[in-house]
From TrEMBL:
Residues 1-23 are annotated as: Disordered. One of its GO terms (biological process) is chemotaxis. It holds the Pfam family FliL. The keyword Transcription does not apply. Its main location: membrane. This is Flagellar protein FliL. It is found in: Cell membrane.
């Protein structure tokens, strides 16, 4: 005698017919995965997130001696500068700033330095050179003297 189908015994587990019950297992796995990601992202945000770089704190202002810079056509510019340093910067050498000012202003026409808009553009150009020379220790440059002849 041959048996083709035997009823399951009490200790054996039966498989659900296809299409029934398999979706619940996948859904649970997806929900668990999403929850793990959310908890992980929240933990990173609150505990491991690097602090945003804060703006540098202004420190002392260093006033440099005035210099005379030769302009075009025999004119000159008497230029005085002050440097706003960061809180961490101390005892900087002003020679780099004076050299940068000479580089920016030398040989310009008197009309180029006489107008306010041009002076601000020149200040920005000088600030770029100071940022390179002092590696971010100078926050701002101020004109303390600006006389042309």
């Amino acid at each position: 005698m041959t048996v083709t189908a035997m009823p399951p015994t009490a200790g054996e587990q039966t498989e659900a017919p296809e299409g029934k019950g398999k979706g619940k297992g996948k859904r649970k796995k997806i929900i668990v995965a999403v929850l793990v990601l959310v908890v992980g992202a929240a933990g990173w945000f609150f505990f491991l997130k690097p602090d945003a770089e804060s703006a540098p704190v202004p420190g002392e202002v260093v006033v440099l001696d005035s210099i005379q810079v030769n302009l075009a056509a025999g004119h000159y510019l008497r230029l005085g500068l002050a440097l706003q340093l960061t809180e961490e910067a101390h005892d900087i050498n002003g020679s780099k700033a004076l050299d940068a000012a000479i580089t920016v202003f030398s040989g310009l026409e008197i009309a180029d330095v006489a107008r306010g808009e041009q002076r601000e553009e020149l200040r920005e150009e000088l600030m770029e050179k100071l940022d390179e020379a002092y590696h971010g220790e100078v926050l701002e440059v101020f004109y303390t003297e600006f006389v042309t002849q």
